[in-house]
Design goal:
single chain; alpha+beta; 11 strands
Amino acid sequence: MKKVRVFAPASIANMGCGFDVIGLALDDVGDIIEITESEGDGLTIINKSGVPMPEDIEMNVITPVVRSFLQRIGKKAKIEVTICEKIYPGSGIGSSAASSAAAAYGMNELFGCPLSEEEVVLCAMEGERLASGGYHADNAAPAVMGGIVLIRGYEPLDIIKLPVPGNFYCAVVHPHLVVNTKEAREILPKEVPMHDAVSQWGNVGGLVAGLCTGNIGLIGRSMKDSIAEPYRKKFIPGFDELRGNLHDVGVLAMNISGSGPSVFALCDKNEVAEKAGGMMRRHFEGRDIGCEVYVVKVSNKGCKLMGISI
């Protein structure tokens, strides 16, 4: 019998303009799971996190990840997964991706790392497919790899890890609202006006160029979303007012984190991020909406092994 204990970080998808193709990992917030392998065949998932999870394992994102991994390496095994700590589902900071990434990375460590990092991401994407109905890696890739990640293409998967400025901080607020990922995707238009498409392409290029050259101002100017945000912001009370107030205190940009309801502000100073976090809390509590606020550094670290026993 072998057992591994793994941490996978929370993540922020899109960074404004990068719908389904850009994401970043966060420090200190994430999932912790333990995976045990023994002789036999089958999968058991035990939830000790205190966060509600589906009782049917067929509805748990960990299940397709484990099955995909074993299929890739051509083996059968009896696997028991214990969820020790869990990001609350629907929080907008990569809850399903953290579980999926932790399961994929943990399985790879448990079996002696037969898969490449990109193949681990592919396994994690199977969990994301179950969670949202879409086959995307903008949360899964940074959760596995850390840092800021660009997914240049999906057919085949082509992932580029981008430079992370050393002084990048995020203030993230998770208001106690539920935004279903599938619903948030279904609300988006099936066709995009050429003007909006051109604007989005320019911003994605500007964001990548800004990260590669360390041009902080360009990064901030580029984090504008012409495609998803105009439709999704209605799920978040006072969104435009909050953005205006945050820009007044010096944040580089404010966007919806993934499909929401979480909102994040990117900052190049910790003190600005702290101010932004306080402002976010007051914004939602003033509307009688409870929330959690995280002020964390953008992380270069993805999944990590916390322990292994044989």
